[in-house]
User: What shape does this take?
Amino acid sequence: MHRRTIEKSEIVQPERLPLLSCSAIIAIPARNEAERIARCLAALAVQRDRLGAPIPPGRFGVLLLVNNATDCTAGVARRLMPDLPYPLEVLEVSLVGNATAGGARRRAMQEAAEQFGENSANGVLLTTDADSLVAPTWFNDNLFQLNAGADCVAGYIDAEPAEIVSHGALFLARGRLEDTYLRLVAEIYARCDPRPHDPWPNHRVSSGASLAVKLAAYEAVGGMPDKALGEDAAFTTLLDEKGFKVRHPLDVSVLTSCRLEGRATGGAADTMRYRRDTPNAPCDEDLEPATKTLFRASLRGFLRKAYQEDDVEAGVSRLLKRDRLDSVASLPFFKVWREIEVRHPNLQRRSPLRPSELPRQIGAAKFILRHLRLSSRRTGVPADKYLHAIPHALVDA
Assistant: This one.
């Protein structure tokens, strides 16, 4: 059988639409990322849906904000433009005031937000990092969650396998312990303080390496907070406080670098380098012993239920006992909760956990969850029934 050879000239190249024609724009801040930016942009070029079909051209565009760079990051990205199936705009800027990781992301997302034309009513902003690789279905999975009712999606972040292994067995073992405990903590919170829009299984991290937000929600809170570091977590907290629904799914995922020489002083790279060199260095401050985690989650769940049942005064009185909060019924949930955290003697944060303590806490968390799961199956009673069943001495230990 004769087979006709298809000439290269017969292959129809997709039309590259301008950025402002897209209903979704991915904002990526980059500084001195010449070695990694091609991988980041290539991962976005092979996006597909859950059935394996490539994402049609025009569904999203990318705005790359190259800030304060001293290498050829912008040049590498521009050379890739003809090969990419999506519109790419490269902006080179010099940040003077907030020339930080947080400042760069804020500027990148603001520039992207200003690109929306007729699609602004249903616009979606996404962001990732220049040293990250989004999963092949990352874009589709983010839109799935937004279409299901979320206003913002905080994806799950994994370390690049080869890099994390290269840091040694102790560093890898520490990471595995922390990830195990974090998963158990996330389930305790999900069961004791359930959020219908963010059900278990979920996680509790908000990272700029994977965020997607409806443009309307982004603009309603004034955009990304102007912070040097931690702007991503501050952003989702702000959304949550304003009543927007933030989802933390496990199936929206990104691989990110765990390099030890970062672009921001005091950032993730500095933290990882310290933990590699000091294997028993403290964990993150919000990791608490399992019993205290249960206590904090139960109190928060109890207060949230009091708000839902319009019984805030009685709920706060029960939590603080002799202490008082004036006019609590007129105050928003998060303001009251922060005040309770400050005033309640058993909610004061102690010294952070260390990796050597995690095996014991993992065992305790598993024990707690066995009872929470069993209680839920048998009676359907909310987990906040444990509120006053936990001995305060045990919580304070």
Summary: The two ends are 80 Å apart (CA to CA). The longest strand covers residues 24-30. The first helix runs from residue 37 to 45.
